[in-house]
């Protein structure tokens, strides 16, 4: 497992380059008026056809059976009773909770950001917001937190201590990311994490996959479909604005992956166009894959704050006259 002390985060870098548990814990106050299972406004990404995938608490119809003395007559199914010629009642079972399982990506490709924060930071904050939303609703919370070499499994449990364990696992792997790392990206880790999620989320869970989906392929699509066949699944795709449009530099741009450094002449068409094609093409491919999997997608942009974007996707605006809380 990643060592939380591997790269101590300096105060000025918290929330932009790295996160710690205290930073993620403070996000609890930001979700007091948010929830996945509340009735979603029309503007929400979870409204309409996607909204039906998020199961809320209530009564589930189980079966029809013959009327027995003492049954509530409000549960009589009049149409079925008339059709069969004998009184039948509808039997319901109560939904107790909506276990939430977070699949959080902290691989080296996530340690990138050309704007406000690293993708790894946005993923950590978004996952923390979802964890606090679930605890606030009285639901169980668990996680699969993974990097290029490891995956930490935390079974869903309804307790503040369990949320703290999830935040600790996220912060630990997050702080182990650094530019000088010699670790090579292991793209198969995404599929491995989804396989572990299948082990933890048997049915009727809300599974939120927070990742840039680097290395996603046919196996990823198949696993997402398997997960969504018995669970509600949301894909929070973290991306950087650079993948939408390469900045219009007329001079040179220095690109590094930590050890190697390359200077590119962005004023040269033969240099610029292949880079633009690579970035925009990759984002398009991931988006299409998620569409084919049938999983609702929330694009999370490193240029904006996690809370503001979550509010946008849930269709709930900040109170008038107040900006979303910054942490």
TrEMBL record:
Domain of life: Bacteria
Pfam families: DUF58
Residue ranges annotated for the DUF58 domain, each copy included: 64-276
SUPFAM superfamilies found in the cross-reference section: vWA-like
The protein, known as: DUF58 domain-containing protein
Lineage of source species: Bacteria, Pseudomonadati, Pseudomonadota, Betaproteobacteria, Burkholderiales
């Amino acid at each position: 497992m990643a060592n939380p002390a591997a790269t101590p985060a300096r105060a000025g870098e918290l929330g932009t380059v790295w996160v710690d548990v205290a930073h993620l814990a403070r996000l609890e106050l930001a979700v007091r008026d948010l929830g996945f299972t509340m009735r979603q406004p029309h503007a929400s990404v979870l409204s309409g056809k996607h909204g039906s995938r998020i199961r809320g608490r209530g009564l589930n119809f189980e079966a029809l059976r013959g009327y027995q003395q003492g049954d509530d007559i409000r549960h009589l199914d009049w149409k079925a009773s008339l059709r069969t010629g004998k009184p039948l009642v509808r039997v319901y079972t109560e939904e107790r909770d909506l276990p939430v399982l977070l699949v959080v990506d902290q691989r080296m490709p996530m340690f990138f950001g050309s704007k406000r924060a690293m993708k790894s930071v946005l993923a950590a904050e978004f996952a923390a917001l979802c964890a606090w939303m679930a605890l606030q609703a009285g639901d169980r919370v668990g996680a699969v937190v993974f990097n290029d070499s490891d995956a930490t499994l935390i079974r869903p449990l309804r307790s503040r201590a369990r949320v703290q364990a999830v935040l600790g696992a996220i912060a630990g792997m997050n702080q182990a990311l650094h530019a000088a790392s010699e670790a090579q990206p292991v793209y198969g880790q995404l599929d491995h994490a989804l396989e572990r999620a299948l082990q933890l989320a048997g049915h009727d869970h809300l599974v939120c996959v927070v990742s840039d989906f680097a290395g996603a392929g046919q196996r990823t699509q198949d696993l997402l479909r398997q997960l969504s066949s018995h669970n509600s699944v949301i894909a929070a795709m973290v991306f950087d604005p650079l993948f939408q449009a390469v900045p219009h530099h007329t001079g040179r741009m220095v690109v590094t992956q930590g050890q190697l450094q390359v200077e590119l002449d962005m004023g040269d068409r033969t240099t610029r166009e292949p880079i633009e094609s690579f970035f925009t093409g990759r984002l398009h491919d991931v988006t299409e894959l998620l569409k084919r999997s049938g999983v609702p997608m929330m694009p999370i942009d490193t240029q904006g704050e996690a809370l503001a974007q979550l509010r946008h996707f849930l269709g709930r605006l900040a109170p008038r006259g107040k900006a979303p809380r910054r942490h």
